[in-house]
Amino acid sequence: MTAKLTQGAVAALVKGSHVENPVLQLLNIRQINTTGVPRYRLMMSDGQHYLSSFLMATQLNRLAEENLLVPHCVCLLKRTTKNTLSDGRHVVVVVDMEVLKSAEEAGGKIGNPTSYSTEGQLSSPNKVSSTTSEPSSTSDAEVPGPSNNSKGWEKDFTGKAPVKISPMKTFPMKGSPMKTSPMKASPMMTSPMKGSPMKGSPMMTSPMKGSPMKGSPMMTSPMKGSPMKASTSSPGSVPKVMPIATLNPYISKWTIRARVTNKSNIRNWSNSRGEGKLFSFEVVDESGEIRITAFNNEVDKFFTLLEQGKVYYISKATLKVANKQYTTLKNDYEMTLHAHSSIVPCTDSPEVPVMQCDFVPIGELENRDKDSIVDIIGVCNSAEDVSRITTKTSREVSKRAISLIDTTGKVVTVTLWGEEAEKFDDSGQPVVAIKGARLSDFRGISLSALFSSTIMVNPDLPEAFRLRAWYDREGFAVDSQSLTETMSVSVGSKMNWRTLRDVKNENMGHGEKADYFSCVATIVFMRKENCLYQACPSSDCNKKVIDQQNGFYRCEKCNREFPNFKYRLLLSANLADFGDNQWVTCFQETAEVLLGRSAEELGQLRETDEAEFDEVFQKANFSTHIFKNRVKLETYNDESRVKVTVMEVLPVDHRVYSRRLLSNIQKLAH
Amino acid sequence: MAGILDVPKPRINCSMLSQFINRAVCFVGRVEKVHPTGKMFTVMDGEGKTATVELNEPLQEELSGIVEVIGMVSNKGEIMASTYSLLREDKGVPFDLELYNEALKVIHDFPQHYPFQVAASG
């Protein structure tokens, strides 16, 4: 019944290596007295080692306050992050944790763990302060900083070459009064940068990264005051940057180096609480992306400085949980700039990616959910002109539909709005990449650019080059299939294409419900003699009226008499295709389409000019159309007949029809 | 010329020219270049390949766009035209040459369904 602890986890966590859901036993918990929010320090054991450099994130404070964290309880650490203090000590911050077994269940201390720190790793804390305080007097201490550390640690290091800490870059161990608190298990390995999310600099002597806990006397927070930033002093020094992916609200000092991928315009707002302005932008680096917003004063300070596509060092901003309503980025956090925020252009970082995109092949869009946000890239093989439409809110906005095709041979229509629509240049079939477009089921499958989408024309991405090469070689001639229905005709899966003989062969209409199908057929005969009838003139009533022979016409349904009537068509026609023919009934709307005349006109013509009346039918005879029909078995006085009614008549688009036939042939051939 | 009108003229593209040497064919393609003498011009098929067409008499008019040529394939793979007709581009649905090419391939892949012979009359 002893719970299984993850042996070696303590050592690994402190070194910064990732451990998957380690199970540790709590040996001791101590509250640190800080101003404001209480913080708890934990001594955790993995059965092999124990360490008290575990700090619990404040969001977990309730675990302590509710007395769930009793010494000897066994816990599962679901999320941790490692931080390195200015003096090189390492702290593991427990961001999410769950108690697996209570102290009673655990039954005492598991194993015989030894203090991790005392494995000969470190010298006494005093040393730390003495050595590290030296550089504080020298600002810009290039070498002294790190090497001091190494001096102090050197002999304590087992296998960790001080080389690691070599003075490559400056590390302003600036002036911070490192208070070394009697932390147990203290300062481990400075070398570490292991876990330390310092990107790009081989240096890694941590200190920069500050203390995770603001105000906690346990750790030497001081860094705060020290201007350890790229923006300051240290000529020729490159600040230690950390990956965007590791940013969280508990790090007090960080710098990121990232490229602005999307910058919004300044927006003003005015509500009951006041008014102000804001703009937001997104940045990306090799590890991920994050959204940053600036309000009021910061808007003035940074709006003109930031340019889309350029790389900047950014630090000192407030990190908070992302409001997913306003962003589709994959980051749990987002940033807000404040008065002390620093943004400095970076000129030498070719490795920062231009954009983080996860392109979905157009052919796969069918498998994605409606309203999901996707990135796509394709060649724009055609584009409509810009059109202006008025929205529901009576705002006028520009709109433009463009078609993109990619190597899957599928085409999708993307709608651009506003400025993007107006300035889009479709000449030369450019490669277009869109990040953050919304998939919609409007007309099958289509995409819409959002306010937050980024549209890049001929971007500098490997996928773009691949597409360009493919298109120029073969893509332009590919028989593409559009996922977006541009005509109401072919809606692929929705249209049930049949031939006329299928009606009999498949016993269509015999079921309880009517069957619907579409077919391409030719009119071979029409009953022109009885195609017109006199109907009730009331707008919603189409019932045949009875000629009272006194100049009045009676409608039984409306129970009224009228001095007039309206002509309506009820055309019986015979359609044929290669396999069979079929009698169908066309009501007013479809008959008018077939004959190309309105019922009224035909009524008049029949009375006045018979020749021309006949001519109308002659012209329509042997014309081919697409018919959408409804089939139902109907019983009338003991007699059952399959009746076919034409619901809609559409012209045949021969190219679409040909493609469908070719595709059917290919399917049959295999 | 009368002779050629009586026989079946399979529709072909450039890739099939070699198989139809000394036979009457029907070739549809886009006019590329017209020789200065007007007695010869090149046409491109739906696959992007080019063939040469030779006429008996020089052209009397401007030739451009899609043209349908009926003639015999010479030993050198050129089409000796008996007659030609231009497909009008200003009217109707534009001719889709690539789609036409796809149809050609089907016709030749399944000769059992698309036999080229004079229908037996009577």
TrEMBL record, chain B:
Q: One Pfam family name from the record?
A: Rep_fac-A_3
Where does this protein reside within or beyond the cell? Answer: Nucleus
Q: Which domain of life does the protein's organism represent?
A: Eukaryota
Which key words tag this protein in UniProt? Nucleus
Q: Name one GO biological process term.
A: mismatch repair
Q: Which InterPro entries match?
A: NA-bd_OB-fold, Rfa2
Q: Does the keyword Transmembrane apply?
A: no
A GO term for molecular function:
damaged DNA binding
Which terms in the GO cellular component ontology are assigned? DNA replication factor A complex; site of double-strand break
Q: Which family does it belong to?
A: Belongs to the replication factor A protein 3 family.
State the protein's name.
Replication protein A 14 kDa subunit
Originating organism: Gambusia affinis (Western mosquitofish)
